[in-house]
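As a warm-up, study this chain.
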Amino acid sequence: MTMKTFTFLRGYVPSILLFIVMVSMIVGCKKDKEPDPVPEDTVKRFITILNDSLKDRGFGYSFVVYRKNEMVGSGVGGLQARKIEVSEDKPVTVDSKMQIASMTKTLTAVSFLKLAQEKGIKTTDKISNYLPPAWTRGQNIELITFRDLLTHQSGIIGLGENCQNGAYAENHWNGLKSLIEKGVRKNNIHQGCYQNANFGLFRVLIPAILGYQFSGDDEKDNLETRTRYEQYVRENLLEKAGVVSKEVLNNGLPFPTFGYDHPYTIGQYGFDPGGFSETTGAYGFYLSATEAAKIYSFLFSTEDASVLNQAMKDSVLTAGLGSYSTLTPNGTFSYHDGWWYSDLSNGRPKGFRGIWMKCPDDLTVVMFTNALRHGDGVFPIKSDFYFDITSYVLWAFSKYKEKDRNGRVAKVNFHSYLKHPEPH
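Now compare it with the structure written out below.
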């Protein structure tokens, strides 16, 4: 190499080295996983806000937060059972099973959507052909679609025709049979009326879609349909999410979780809801916060399509098939809450309040409490920012997102963002 050539190259060596370094960085970035959009310490702030606002308040709670398919935090407090029910106070853990109530509706909706896709059934198809042949079809039953049931727009307004939501009497086999025989008014179809029976009917419809041949014997068909519904949900949703539980419709024996009033009335026995095998479909599942968070995050994760493809996820999360959604300045939130109670009329109700919520930043929150506040019987605590469990989670998320603005949350009660603020 001549001195002239060396001098020529020397001027380009830094540029060549820089080019090599840049190429190496690009190749390395392609091999590595995309950078996480939400720093872990930021998510931990969310966990801290939830825990700090719930702990030492005199009621039992458990929550788990997932980001994508990974658990990022949890919190617990209070008692699952007291000495008055068991030999000694039993603290709540993230593995304490609680009554998830209407959060069950989302699992039923997902089960139907998965099965319907496999069988070539559309949500706009009529339900009549899948009802037991021996059931008498009342007026306009032939007009009801699967979508009508999933959005509480079937025209069913209860046996009392007052749109008061029914529980046991209208959700066991004979109750559902009576509602179908009663029929619906045509002008009530496509009008919203929240009724457990809309989802209770799926424990009859899902087995029929699976091919169950009704015998006409009510006792046999009752047993077979509820057994097949439970089996389908367990095998196709719960177990695919990694949750194996044979007692999803019974209260966590031998260690049940009791529901209480808040503030707790000293010396009062807690409320044990018992088993729900006779009325499954709209409510009745028992899950721990660990199990429920694993299930709901798995079902709606952006990274997994083994149960639902993205279009089906959107039909739940944004189209309201088995869920609700709300838009706040922090983005869109999808959810379904759960409410199970006893003694609501005496001013000191006991029971359970729960929620799953899909939040921005690909966060999924599951929260349970086993106490209801005096008076209105909903989430044990309230403030200027929230009234019930749904607005509470919206507030906590907003508070964590406001970190870069001096930690100040706008003076608004997040309950006002809800299109359906009533407890479900």
